[in-house]
Amino acid sequence: MAETVKIVDARGSFCPGPLMELIKGIRQEPVGTILEIWSSDQGSAKDIPEWVQRAKHELVKNFEEDGVYKIQVKKLR
Amino acid sequence: MPQVVIVGGGTGGSIVANQMARQLNKELQDGTVSISVIADSPDHIYQPLFLYLAFDQATPQDMRKPERQILDRHVRLISGEANRIDAEAQRVILTDGTSIPYDYLVIATGSRPAPEQIPGLVEGGHQFYTEDGAIQLRQALRDFSGGRLVVTVGVPHKCPVAPLEFTFMVQEWLKTRGLGDKTEVVYTYPIGRVHSIESVANWAAPVLEERHIETHTFFNMESIDPETHTITSLEGDTLSYDLLVAIPPHVGQDVIGRSGLGDAGQWIPTDRHTLQMIGHDNIFVLGDATNLPISKAGSTAHFEADVVAANLVHRLRGGLGMMSYDGKVFCFIETGLKEATYITFDYDHPPVPSMPTEMIHLYKLAYNRMYWLTPAGLL
Ligand SMILES: Cc1cc2nc3c(=O)[nH]c(=O)nc-3n(C[C@H](O)[C@H](O)[C@H](O)COP(=O)(O)OP(=O)(O)OC[C@H]3O[C@@H](n4cnc5c(N)ncnc54)[C@H](O)[C@@H]3O)c2cc1C
Fold first, then answer.
1. B197 touching A, CB under 8 A?
2. Cα(B344)–Cα(B295) distance, integer angstroms
3. Structure pTM?
């Protein structure tokens, strides 16, 4: 069965910003959840993977679609 | 007769009620529309003063007024806690069993700090995000004789500038108490810079350094050990503290969870422009209660309330109500005990902070007194 992906739409979020929205999602969802964060800020494509690595979660995908940066992260712990 | 029911008599709920009442004055007098506010507290509380309460610069009396005095006299105030919202039956059920039917519902229940989500935090830390918390912290600061004071920030939280403001203020405050040399102030932040807003972070980072405030980024509190006085982050770092001041992670109110209207954090899925609850044409959500990726701040609730009130009034008069929220937020930032700055932004325009001045600080202090005009729907 394909894993379901929870979309976190953080386009236009200057505060708290896409990474903080991802941390919120990771904190409240169960282990195993895949979150796909949408950001209009190019910086997210770099900031988010950096945190994901430090926090020991898994970066599943990191791509751009029509000017929106989409980063998929799996909660591992 | 269409019935508008607003759950929550805080900043957002009170503004919606009063703005609608002013515009629908005739309909309310004729009894062709009704507006009710369900409020679980007889007093309206101005939360930003909790920050000043912790420093004994405001008292509990300064931050409250009876909600009845704030609401237009044509608005019905229902005192009680909403226990459940039944969106199918279009009713709100109070804890005492009273059932309140609605045609249009506005959810403005705000958010609450959830220190219980972090093991050891309730026993080991202090916070100033509730009145009781601020009073306990006031005592702890008064009794503090020096050592390591750690400020740590949970996700999500309301008022994104308060952690930084507290950090700057506490350092100055300790200096004035003659404890400057005996104290180390430590500031931690969840992401890779010292504030979520890049320009604020760029401004604050050198100031923190200049003031010798030890800073740890990428620090998300995971647990606190009150025995050893240590805090550990989910990134794996451990810091020791003598006094821990935490901004706990927040959740939406429990009534949202009980009613099955929210996500895992009890935040309500909301359309970012219409502010309608996703999938519910007659439910509007504003303020801290939404799941929107914007600052949980009084100003956010205020700008959203303008849109919700205008659209509801228009719909009650037979229009469609198509005014759209653009994501606008405005925040003052205290940069010490004598100066402040401000920022404003929306979904399409990033914030640009200006240089801190004494004037802005004085305006913020003045606003703390003028706040009551905001829920009254006047400012
Ligand atoms: C220390 C601190 C400093 C802050 N500083 C600032 C600042 O400088 N600038 C700024 O813009 N914002 C600031 N804020 C944030 C601001 O106070 C909130 O974001 C704002 O009040 C949100 O408005 P709201 O209407 O969504 O919720 P609230 O104003 O919190 O109102 C929610 C209301 O709903 C009631 N309620 C909840 N559940 C129920 C229920 N089940 N039944 C009935 N009633 C219920 C609550 O009692 C409350 O009265 C600060 C907050 C804190 C804690």
1. yes
2. 11
3. 0.97
